[in-house]
Amino acid sequence: SLEWKASSSSKPLVIAAWLAVGIPLAWGVWITLQKTAVLFH
């Protein structure tokens, strides 16, 4: 099984990387949902 463990020193870097990816992604999904809601109403 593929298992990846971050060392304690790299955890802030991993969190920062996830935020850098996750925030724009969540923003894009939110905008898309708002636009589709307008289309269906």
Word description of this protein:
- With 41 residues, this protein is mainly α.
- It is 73% helix and 0% strand.
- It is elongated.
- Keywords: Membrane, Transmembrane, Transmembrane helix.
- The chain crosses the membrane at residues 12-33.
- This is MFS permease-like protein.
- It comes from Pseudomonas syringae pv. spinaceae.
Briefly say what this structure is.
This protein is mostly helical.
* Gap from first CA to last CA: 46 Å
Question: Whole-number average pLDDT?
Answer: 88
How would you classify the helix and strand content by structural class? mainly alpha
Largest sheet: none
What is the number of E strands?
0
Q: How big is the Rg?
A: 16 Å
Q: Which residues sit in consecutive blocks of at least 5 with pLDDT less than 50?
A: none
- Strand share of the residues? under 5%
Protein name: MFS permease-like protein
Keywords: Membrane, Transmembrane, Transmembrane helix
Organism: Pseudomonas syringae pv. spinaceae
Transmembrane segments: 12-33
